[in-house]
Amino acid sequence: MRILLACLFALIAASSRAEEVEVDVELFLAVDVSRSMTPRELEIQRRGYAEALASDEVVAAISRGALGRIALTYVEWAGRNDQRAVVPWTLIDGREAAEAFAAKISAHFDSAMRRTSISAAISHAAASFEGNGFRSWRRVIDISGDGPNNDGRPVTWARNAALERGFVINGLPLMTREGMGAQWHLDDLDEYYRACVIGGPASFVVPVRRWEEFPMAVRLKLVQELASAPSDLSPGATPATFHELTQPTYDCLIGEKIWERYFRETLP
User: Fold this and answer.
1) How far apart are the first and last CA of the chain?
2) Residues of the chain predicted below pLDDT 50
3) Which residues are paired to 30 by β-bridges?
4) DSSP code of 197?
5) Which residues of 25-51 are buried (b: 16+ CB within 10 A; e: fewer)?
6) What residues contact residue 22 under an 8 Å CB cut-off, 6+ apart?
7) How far is residue 230 from each of residues 138, 160, 161, measured CA to CA in Å?
8) CA distances, 242 to each of 3, 55, 195, 237 (Å)
9) Measured between alpha carbons, how far is 160 from 242 in angstroms, rounded to an integer?
């Protein structure tokens, strides 16, 4: 009886797997909408992603893949319990699909949310890949944000857990100074992202220092993510060893310490 049940479960799993659409890459776009972002910045982000996704460069990068199609989702995040899917997992197999996805991103603009939990964004992203209807050899979590983790579990805990499952995490640190909450900003946010957020084979950081740079930065980042192939990876590299060997030393709890110090100094 146990053997029969085991065979039945194996057949069900194989059938479910066969129904998944194979793509070149599954890409989770996790976009910061914490309260330190102004309404103007939130709009720049949405429009920047929409413009990049519909650009000739990104559409061409998708078409150059072995299968010529990717799976994509766009999710905004802030605190540990604040993640909202703007566009769910979607098949992008050409210009028409890319433009339709871009139109959904820029259809309306939601308000900001409180706190900054990069760790929750990573954990939420990793969980969303299961049962998303797609499969690929490469699963990428793309994190953009304007400050360090200050809510939820330590960012390295979530980062390392995702790396152990084979994810690649790339970063788009927003190093602008337009929004409120200057006390949360880091002058070397790009170094924080390199040390504490990104990881996995061929992972990278694209810093944005002025909002005028944002659309082009997103475009370049997407093309680089979509152009990556197994040949780009170091021979024998694994997500954990790749990260450990390439990242500098950094206090990855700096965001939590800034938060604690701020309230210790402001509360009576």
Assistant:
1) 68
2) 5-16, 229-247
3) 75, 143
4) I
5) bbbbbbbbbbbbbeeebbebbbbbbbb
6) 67, 134, 135, 136
7) 9, 21, 22
8) 41, 31, 12, 6
9) 12
- Work out whether the CA dihedral 43, 47, 49, 50 comes out positive or negative: positive
Strands 21-22 and 26-32: unpaired
Tokens 């776009």 belong to: 29
What 3-state DSSP class applies to 103? helix
Q: Which residues pair with 71 in a beta bridge?
A: 26, 91
The DSSP letter of residue 1 is -
Neighbours of 103 (CB within 10 A): 13
Rounded to two decimals, the pTM is 0.84
Q: Which two tokens stand for residue 67?
A: 């299968």
Rounded distance between C-alpha atoms, residue 109 and residue 249, angstroms: 38
- Cβ contact 170:138 at 8 Å: no
How far are the Cα atoms of 88, 174, 260 from residue 266, in angstroms, in the given order? 40, 26, 10
The residues near 1 (Cβ < 8 Å, ≥ 6 apart) are none
| DSSP E strands, 78-132 | 83-92
d(CA 104, CA 84): 14
pLDDT in tens, 106-144: 876 666 567 789 999 999 999 999 999 999 999 999 999
| 189-201 residue pLDDT tens | 999 999 999 999 9
Structure tokens at 248: 């500098």
- φ and ψ at residue 239, rounded to 5 degrees: -55, -45
**Strand pairing report for 26-32 and 139-145:** parallel
Helix axes 118-128, 155-164, angle to 10 degrees: 20
